Each structure stands twice: as C-alpha cells, then as structure tokens.
Amino acid sequence: MTSTKLSPETVREAADEAGFDIVRFGPADPGDHGERFADWIEQGRHGEMDYLTKNQERIVDPRTWRPEARSAISAGVDYGGPPGELQGGGRIARYATGRDYHRWLKKKVMKLRANLAQMGMPEESMHGGTDALPVLERALAVRAGVGFLAKSSMVISPSTGPYLLLSELLVDQELPHDLPSPGSCGNCTACLDACPTNAIVAPFQLDARRCLSYSTIEHRGFSAPEMREAQGEWLFGCDICLEVCPFTARSKRRKLSGADRPAELQPHKVVETWTLVDVLEMDEDRYQSDFVGTAMRRATRSGMRRNAAVVLGNQRQESALPHLIAALADSDPVVRGHAAWAIDRIEPRHPSLEKALRIEDDERVKQELHRALNR
Ligand code: B12
Ligand code: SF4
Ligand code: SF4
After folding, report:
1. Which of 51, 97, 201, 202 has the fewest CB atoms nearer than 10 Å to its CB?
2. For ligand 2, is residue 164 a contact (CB within 6 Å)?
C-alpha cells in the first residue's frame, strides 16, 4: 500500500474515534528526561524492578530499537472515579478497580493504529502500546503537551487531572508537535505532605522503594516492617498523592459510578463482592478463576494475601483473629510471617504466636514471630 501523509486533524479524529479523552503529538524520544531516569536508576530508586534496568538503554533512547520513529502520538484516558474498596475495607487504587487497563487501553491503541492504516498510514510505520513498550510514557506525554509534570511525578492534564492512563503510538511520519501543556503545581505541596511513607523525596522525585504502590504491587516476598503500618487500608496500590491533588476535581468521570461508567472502568467482581478474609484465604483455583482480567494479578497471589494480612492487622478487628491464626499454618511463609505481624497488632503476644514458633522452620517467619513476641 502507498503511504499517505495524514494531516494532524485527521490523526486527532482517528484518536477520538478510538476512544481517547486526550491526544497530543510530540517527539518520539524522552529528551533530557532520559538522563533523569538514568540518575534515578543509579540511585537505586527502582528497587527490584529489574525490567527497568534490563531495558535502560532502550528506554532512554528509543532510536536503538525504532530508528524510523519520528513522532509520538501520546494519548490518555481519564479513569477518575469513586474509590475502590472491598466489603468491610481494603482499598484498591482506582486504576485497578475495573478491567486490566493493559488490555483495554492497548485495544484502543490498536484501534487507533487500524484507523490510521485504513486512511493510508502503513501499519509497519506505527508501533504502539501501554506500559509494555520500553519508553518513558510520562516523558513522551509531557513533551507532547498532554499534561505537565507534577511534583508527585504524575503527568497532570489541566482538563482531566491526574487520573489519566497513558499510552502511545510511535509513528514514522513527522507530525507537528503540540505546544507544552499549561498548568503547574505552583506553591502546592499537598502530595508531599500527605504521602504516608515520604516516598516523594523531593518535588518531581519519587523513591519507589518507599512507595506503597511499589511495596504492595511490585515487591515480592516479605514487606519491610516499617512500611506495614503506613500501608493502612491499602490492599493494592495507593492513590493518596492523587486524592489530595486539587487537579483531581478536573476529572470528568470522577462522579460517575455504576453503569454510567464506561464498561472497562466498572468495578470488577472481586472489588464488589470480596472481603479481606476472602483474599487472605484465596487458593490457587479461586485466584485463577476470579482474578482473570484484573490488573491486580500483577501483585501475585502470595503478594495479595500478604497485603490482606497487613490490612487486617491495621484494622485491628478481633473477628479477623481466627482467620489469621489459621494462616499461621499456611504453606506460604510470606503469608505466615505477615499473619504473625497482624495477630500481634490485634492482640499482642497472642498464645498462637508462641505455639507457631515451636514448630516453625522458616528463618524469616521465625524472625517475624520473635519480633512480635519481643515487642
Ligand atoms: C515503574 C512505574 C511505577 C513505579 C515507580 C513510579 C515513579 N514515579 O517512578 C511505582 C510502582 C512506584 C509506580 C507507582 C504508580 N504508578 Co506507575 N509506572 C511505572 C512505569 C512502568 C515506569 C515509570 C518509570 O520509569 N519511572 C522512573 C521515573 C524516573 O520516571 P517517571 O515515572 O517517568 O518520572 C518522571 C519524573 O520522575 C521526572 N523526574 C525524575 N527525576 C527528576 C528530577 C527533576 C529535578 C525533575 C524536574 C524531574 C524528575 O522525570 C521522569 C520522566 O519524565 C510507568 C509506565 C512507563 N512505561 O512509563 C507507569 C506509570 C508512570 N504509572 C502510572 C500510575 C497510574 C501509577 C500510580 C498512580 C498507580 C497507583 N495508584 O498505585 C502510582 C503513582 C505513584 C507516583 N506518585 O508516581 C501511570 C502514570 C500516568 C500519569 N498520568 O502520570 C504510568 C505512566 C502507566 C500508564 N500507562 O499510564 N509506577
Ligand atoms: S502512591 Fe502513596 S505511597 Fe506512593 S508516593 Fe503516592 S502517596 Fe506516597
Ligand atoms: S498535590 Fe499539589 S504539588 Fe502534588 S501534584 Fe497535585 S498540585 Fe502538584
């Protein structure tokens, strides 16, 4: 097929038709954001997210894997909405309360690609995705003018606020770059002040190792004891730095609930019907059948059960004790260790802890039990 040079207006219409709330054009590389990313990695702020270090060269310089790309079409979806909460507590970050955005947002990008292909842009001249491409999505979005880089490190669009999921289509055609987005944080420091773990170590700089989104989703195994109380009610992710942001009021979907929300943003069955105890006691079969199509799978079954134990400990409800005591005999040491921590929060030096220590053979769990008994 011959290549047709499409006008920016045509591309924008195609993006609207694919279901995006905002679309802008910018360079296909992250510019000096790449150096910031490299510094961030060098300081170890990525924690154990090895996929970032493995792909560092590609992320910093997309020309290494896509030399033909001339422009990035950066496109976002406003996912604002009511907080996600299980029956009886346990909060879920808004981006994960509906269907897995990796799937539905990618579908929108593919729809945009198909629309443009139909209009004459060769399919092989476009490469797109969300979260999965080795690119700095925020950098591309800022450079395209989708939003401004905020102190929380979120990209905030003045028209939708911070609840904005990003995706991009790198294209070989040169598209005229949009102007930088208006708006800025000004003197506001609400997110830095509200972050329960001081993870925003300076304006625009986040230490992922201290962020609840990292510790509840990306981190595997035992969580750092000093993070657990700060985790509060968060079962998966954390939205505090978005919730306190004055720009949150800009989201058009913020007040839409139930059937008024687009299908992909309607709450998942797990969010609507499960309790924390269900998560704590979830077996592999239930995980495989009920967690299909949710972004929460990223945390793994062990991670979700660990998180549930921590939240139950923070809730300090005696009714959770029998379930946590049963979890002391679980086959997963991570679940046993966090159950011990939670039991101690609800009833210090509960006899079940002493009993468990007598038969425990895992060193990490023993440490948890000792810590609880000697506190
Ligand atoms: C790794 C990752 C995380 C990590 C680290 C996040 C971070 N801030 O670094 C963890 C697990 C903590 C995380 C958390 C969240 N994430 Co995340 N995450 C990513 C991912 C996969 C890579 C980001 C990355 O490379 N980070 C490294 C840092 C250095 O780069 P950056 O995040 O782009 O940060 C910019 C600023 O930090 C700035 N910067 C850095 N140093 C300095 C220094 C100075 C002086 C200045 C001025 C700027 C500056 O430059 C960077 C480049 O623009 C992206 C998807 C992608 N491929 O880009 C999603 C992504 C960034 N995450 C996203 C979301 C929604 C979240 C959460 C809201 C989820 C939640 N509710 O739990 C939280 C928000 C926490 C927060 N305040 O950032 C969205 C953000 C959308 C937006 N509008 O900004 C993205 C783009 C995914 C998507 N497809 O939409 N995430
Ligand atoms: S997501 Fe939560 S823990 Fe992470 S920076 Fe924002 S407020 Fe802090
Ligand atoms: S809370 Fe304030 S400082 Fe933080 S991102 Fe929003 S406007 Fe910026």
Report:
1. 202
2. no
What does the pLDDT average to over 340-359?
Answer: 97
**Residue ID of nearest Cα to ligand 3 atom 4:** 191
Ligand nearest to the CA of 231: 2
The values of phi and psi at residue 177, to 5°, are -70, 140
Q: Ligand 3 pocket: which of 142, 164, 185, 238 to mutate (most atoms <8 Å of CB)?
A: 185
pLDDT of residue 364: 98
Contact 84, 91 (CB under 8 A): yes
Q: Write the DSSP symbol of residue 8.
A: H
Please state the separation of Cα 182 from the chain's center in Å: 25
Q: How far apart are CA 323 and CA 356, in angstroms?
A: 14
Residue 139 makes CB contacts below 8 A (sequence gap 6+) with: 30, 31, 33, 34, 37
Model pTM? 0.97
User: Please, which pLDDT band fits residue 2 given cuts at 50, 70 and 90?
Assistant: low
